[in-house]
Amino acid sequence: MIPRIQRNLNRFAILGNKYTCFGSAGPVFRWLEEKFPNLGNFPLQSVPMRSNKAMKWEETLKGVFDAIDAELEAEYRTRYPLHPSRPKHRATANPEDDGLFNVGAAFSAGFGSKTGPGYVVEIRIATLNRVPEAVRAEIKQKIFQGLEKRLPEAFPNRTLHVTEEGNTIRIHGDLSLN
């Protein structure tokens, strides 16, 4: 328990006369109040690590990937057996955690990329069977087309591009939070 608390304390800071915890605050605040009863003189507050605009932007992007995931599940879920440790499609509240596919994106600062900052699309197929390269290419193409179709609908008044750089699908362009 001590190492976990130590890691949490690394996210703890004193701002002015307020003790502030970045990230998951509850356990740290309880531990601090227990160990240092005189903290009652200072108000405790939790500060989110990310802005609401950034979280909304990524939530919208996740919705795009969830829709593409559902289409892929409908088309391919009977073609390949699911990994034994993976729940069936729609068995969990999050499509990333169930079914044959996990399609999403991770932000990249774009160092070394021709396109600069953006999102790198991650495609995972949860099966123990070998998926032929031709089928993988077909799946990748469907994801590419799905992104080209859905991104303008999800992010109107923004210029977002979907490109392929090497073996990677990238989303780049107007990533502003306005």
Give the topology, please:
Layout: H1 2-9, E1 12-15, E2 18-22, H2 26-35, E3 44-47, H3 52-76, E4 101-108, E5 118-125, H4 133-154, E6 160-165, E7 168-173
Parallel strand pairs: 2-3
Antiparallel strand pairs: 1-2, 4-5, 5-7, 6-7
Taking the alpha carbons of the first and last residues, their distance comes to 41 Å
Describe the strand arrangement of the main beta sheet, using strand numbers: 4-5-7-6
Mean pLDDT: 82
Percent of residues in beta strands? 15-25%
Order of helices and strands: HEEHEHEEHEE
Domains counted in the coordinates: how many?
Answer: 2
Q: What's the number of helices?
A: 4
User: Are there runs of 5+ residues with pLDDT below 50, and where?
Assistant: 1-22
Main sheet record: 4 strands, antiparallel
Q: What is the tally of beta strands? A: 7
What is the approximate shape?
A: globular
